[in-house]
Amino acid sequence: MERCSRCSGRGEISCSSCGSSGRRTCTSCNGHLQLLWFQKLIISWRNNRAEHVVEKTSLPPEMVAHASGSIGFEDLQQQVLPLQRFPEPEINSASQRLLVEHKFPDRRILMQRHKIRIIAVTKCSCKYKNKDMTYYVFGLDNDVHAPDYPQQSCFGFINCPKCSLDCCPEEIREDLREECSIL
């Protein structure tokens, strides 16, 4: 509770209709000397983030979204414009759609960022123990996704077989190095 600012906590104010010769009850606090209300301003800061993955292989989009890649385009301004001349038409339409979705009537935009990451994806085919297998090497860290690999706990999402396979047994690492060939 706060002390009434109109009557300074006395509960009465000077009467203006009789020329201030009398006193009357303060209309702000109703003579209770204190106010039970106050004004409070709440400001909340939010980052509204959205992404669109253009994926043309059978690699799960969430894996591509979290992979490392090189920056193909980046724009940081108070309000960015939608892309119109990017070589991939799906990127242009996603850019327009995402910017429209980020116009909120009850929020003010302080800064926007448009970023396009380019992630290299290589489809690899090989034979492992006389079974045809396909896997993908992607990102700058050479992450691997091998949905057909028989030992998923070992090879579901790891580094490239040509770099290091520290989580795999040595015999599997050697088999992969010998049998796999990138298409």
Protein described:
The protein is α+β, with helices and mostly antiparallel strands. The chain has four helices and eleven strands. It has helices at about 60-65, 90-100, 150-155, 170-180; strands spanning about 1-5, 10-15, 25, 35, 70-75, 110-120, 120-130, 130-140, 145, 155-160, 180. The chain has a five-stranded antiparallel sheet with strand order 10-9-8-7-11. A two-stranded antiparallel sheet has the order 1-4. A hairpin with a 2-residue loop joins strand 7 and strand 8 (about 130-140). The N and C termini lie far apart (about 75 Å). Residues about 155-165 and about 180-183 have low confidence and may be disordered.
Backbone shape? elongated
Name the average pLDDT.
78
- Unreliable residue stretches: 153-167, 179-183
Q: How many angstroms does the end-to-end distance come to? A: 75 Å
Largest sheet: 5 strands, antiparallel
- Which percent range describes the beta-strand content? 25-35%
SSE topology string: EEEEHEHEEEEHEHE
Question: Could you estimate the helical fraction of the residues in percent?
Answer: 10-25%
List key phrases describing it.
single chain; 183 residues; alpha+beta; 5-stranded antiparallel β-sheet; elongated
Write the layout of secondary structure elements.
Blueprint: E1 2-3, E2 12-14, E3 23-25, E4 34-35, H1 61-65, E5 70-77, H2 89-101, E6 112-118, E7 121-128, E8 131-138, E9 143-145, H3 152-155, E10 157-159, H4 170-179, E11 180-182
Antiparallel strand pairs: 1-4, 2-3, 5-6, 7-8, 7-11, 8-9, 9-10
